[in-house]
# Entry
Amino acid sequence: MGCGMGKSRPLQEKCDRAIRAALLIQRWYRQYVARLEIRRRCTWNIFQSIEYAGEQDQIKLYNFFGFLMDHFTPASSERNLISHIFRENEICHETEWEKYFCYKGVEVPDSYNGPHLTFPMSFCGVSKLMEAFRHKQQLHARYVLQILGETWRLLRNLPNINHISVCHTKEITICGDLHGQLEDLLLIFYKNGLPSSEKPYIFNGDFVDRGKNSLEILLILFGFLLVYPNDVHLNRGNHEDHIVNLRYGFTKEVLGKYRFHGKKILKLLQKIFSWLPLAAVIDHKVLVVHGGISNSTNLHIVSRIDRHKYVSVLRPPKMTHQRNSGNGDIDGPMEGRRRVRSLTNHSSAPAHRNNFHRRSLHNLSVGNYLSCSVEDELKKRRRLAGFDQSYGEMKTSDSDSDPEFRERTEIYGREWKQIVDLLWSDPMPQKGCVPNEVRGGGCYWGPDVTEEVLGRHSLQLLIRSHECKQDGYEFCHNRKVLTIFSASNYYEVGSNRGAYIRMGPDLVPRCIQYQASRTSRELTLRQSVGRTERSALQALKEQLFVHKSDLIRAFQEFDPDNMGLISLRHWATATDSVLKLGLPWRVLRPQLVSRTHYGMVNYLQWIKELSITEPKLEVSDTSILETMYKNHSNLETIFRIIDTDHSGLISFEEFHQTWKLLSSHLKMEISDKAITDLAQSMDFNKDGSIDINEFMEAFRLVDLSSHT
Amino acid sequence: MAENRQHTETVSDIHKKITTAFKLFDYDANNTVDAREISTIVFSLGCFPSQADLHQIIAEVEEGSSGYVHLDTFLPVMTKVLLEHRFPPIPVEHILRAFEVLDKENKGHLEEGELTKYMTEEGEPFTNKEMEEMLAVLLNNKRGLVYYRDAVGLLGFDGVMK
# Structure
């Protein structure tokens, strides 16, 4: 290369040179694309591992609650703080619930300028609703309750598995996770047309959480369900679960939009979620379910389950001893874990659920009472039970003695497993079926399991969602499993496309992709990778920042002489051992460590330079801050559980209780003084209570460098 | 990596580099990758092979016709490639001059049609998808012209895995 281009050159040589030039440019460009692909893959891994670690974290927290429930005396205040989340089917029969949820008492003021709905729901009504939401209007609580009420009544009549037919040249459309991203739903309707009897739809779960229009999506989907009940099908996803919603934003969204009626709306939604069908089968050949399957999946068993009894599937139900409390106990597994007797104290009477009422925690005297409660109890129980880390499955020894009881427990356990597997599982390339440790629920299932389960049920294809895919869809297991994900730009603008499936009587799926937001479509490959990458790195830096004490400790192990320097290799090893995200740290290193000194990292300097600001709080104990950062999602979850009247405010005592709970879960000691200091500094307006949202805002980490 | 130029890279360093890049695509966590990912892996290690070169490497490391490559086979082959600096990065000036060769009239830019013709018909031709993407990146104006000087600067080449 590099010759001149004189005009006297023979034509052949010129051609050769041109070819060589083209070759060089092609090589150069392909290298560039490969580099982008590597970056994209790393970025993806970051988001996904943080997301799944969060899910696992939540399940651990919930298991902890379950453990508390099972092993603490009814009198313990900690248990009472959270016991209400396990009491789902309180007292009533459905007529009483109908009264509680009735919309009739809710007046619509004249000042309301949102949409007015008439019932029974009509196509015009849903269109009006969509228009209103497009213009960012909010539906009045009366109409919300009305739609939800009608939906609840309808869902109760649906089977666990809907059997659908696509004969008569009707094509069916199948959508995956939407996660509150209204723009994507509207884009699908725009591209594909609205649901109707000529245009049936299946929505495969995870309508809520994360995005900010979860409720609007639900109302639109329910609206169409009411208008076309035979042509619109909704499957339950793992996020259609009030416990998950506490952490992932849906609860917060509802309470934020409906300050007065939010609690009622959430309660009604709990019931609706539990009544959502679990799966759909098209023409006896194609199974559509949110998560997937396991080697024990049996659709005949699934179709016979009383699905509404599994309000949250986060934990296996425990049968309680049936006592003659004489007021129509609800038989069967309840998320309502009625603690009939404590482990050591056999004399206490069964807790009458009728007598449950919201306790005000403002009158509790804390301090001394607490110091000999949670930690000590836990230690004692653990010793008795003989286990350490996981709260897992435990059988209460006394209840086990009754064989009938044991058998019923087993049946409910089996049913529960069927549901969890359907909603939480992920496919894997290897053969076999193993518990899904990453998410904390369901299984990883292999191609052999797909063959076996599909074969056993005479099915030919499994369509599922649950996992974000870059192209919006992905085949696996010899094209017998198709993942469909409909929330585009899920991690960040430009991170991924969304897609939906069209399927005709030939049962051959066709995937149509899209990407919401004009800006993301115009981004070049490089720009969208760059943007997603920046976002992922920011998320990663936050994780690094909140673990800085652990990181420093890990680094110091590689620096026995205290020089302040460690090799890059050791940096990668130490970071991996602390964060446990399984990321390729060596590859990420250039993005995270900007300066090295002859291949060594000055780790203290590096940690300082992570440039994340800290909240302006005066606390005596700085390690408590770090705990807060690390566990802020758990904290928020606990707060929202404790805030039983959903006011968004908690008292100092409740705050104190929360900390005690969290510290038992984490098995750490936190001094009372530290908690008190913290509480006082969190009371930003000095009125004796803490606003949950303000508190969480204080912990939003901000990258200083992004402001320069 | 820039800072390592001061030391000779040991074989063990090279092994680590290769293994890390390999594992990014090892979804099953069993030290195997799809053969179609080999080109990306090789590129990511700072090499600039031609398609012919890549086919050769893949032929050497693929397990029969399974479509899979095992780390044990890949590691020694790739180590040799890196130790020999077999596919060194292309200096910027060479890329520029390559564009200039194609720019017969010395306009300082290439038309979309011109570039497309070369890239999809000569050398180791691009697929339509590759061409579309390249144009999306390089065509930064409405007149359908590729200002290649800017393009080369924009994409860089540095041969260093970022």
Summary: The mean pLDDT of chain A is 77. Chain A has 26 helices and 18 strands. The first strand of chain A starts at residue 161 and ends at 164.
